[in-house]
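Render Nagb/rpia/CoA transferase-like protein in 3D.
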Amino acid sequence: MRSNSLRDSSPATSSPSKSSFDTGEVPSTPSRTYKTTALCTNVSCEVIALLDSIVQGMATDCVSGSCAMASSALSNLSTLIDVAADTVRNAEELWNVTIMAAKQMSSARLSVNAAVKSCLLRALAEIQESWKLQVSTEQQSQSATAKSPPELARIAAFVIQGILNQRAHADTNLGKSFTYWVKAFAPKSTTTTSTTSCSGPDFDNQDMLKIMTLGNPGSIYSGILMLLLHAPTIHIQLTILESRPRFVGPVLAAKLLSQAPRHVHDRLHIRVAPDCAVAAMAQDVDIVLLGADRISSSSSSSSTGTVLTSMGSLAAVVCTKKLQPLAKIVILTDAENIVAPHEPEWTPEQHPPQELTAAWHPSTKHTLEGLQCQANLDVFLECYEEVPRELIDVYLTEHGILDAGGVRRAGEQIGNLEKRFFG
């Protein structure tokens, strides 16, 4: 870990192989860099400039969640394929550019690239299959002419739009998974009005479910909203830690209160608390509900299932485990956040201290900046941390409940795709 100077304003910051449209192998590229110039001699300046712009934008995007960033990357890939189709000579060159672009976008922010890489790899598999199917159809018809790059680009755009349409329903499935788990397995609040046993909530009576979360992941929004819609007798007391330095916790509160149907408002009770109150909040909670930016599927059984998530999550989990042992720690996330077993260890991102000091009183900030050269004063600002598997009770995805074995299998699937396309 490294602390930053108060005056630091900098933003958060393979061997070559042959390329073949039929095999999905990767074109020769240099080591990961935000500058993509000179990657392929036959790539136009327009394509390079567009890809540079996309990668730079992703590298400095500290606002979008992982799912939103993955969807944006898909849309950008479609645009880039369309632009490249006007400059390449044949299908193989277009495929090489597509692979190159996907690889660069997958590496834009290595610390939180799991969803982007997984989403793009699965899109590559579908695009390749569609193009190969088109080639096979042409070979069976002697009168047919080979598809031009622009025609292949239109096929890719159709495939990507289909994936984006499917992703639009992923949040619904994620919310349904959470609702099912709550109905079947969630602990009962000590304040419930029901008289049933402690084995689980009885939705024939009114129950109060106390949930603590932090940050503003889309998965949490979907999970809470779907639970309110599909469990009509449950009341939720939702404690949201404000999540400095960007204060995204209140953003989640505002989104829930402004977008949830009015008929569920009387069953949603939101409390926003400062991060420093985490221990006090943890004493009265049934579930700690967290999103994930990355889930490890390492071959090491001890690290499989380790979750990378918002800074402050580990404190929330540890405090709850100590102060409310019966509470459950739940990870609610898209399965695409599971990384391949061989994925490098997570490297902390360093963010400019201004993100933290912006909330300080101007006179205090001015005084400390003036004294910094005379004293040992730094600002710590990392936005992500890991929660070990042994502290987590359940992983919920759009596909349902996963255990460590399910996490490992999902990681192996994405690892096979990465080897196939990126080498």
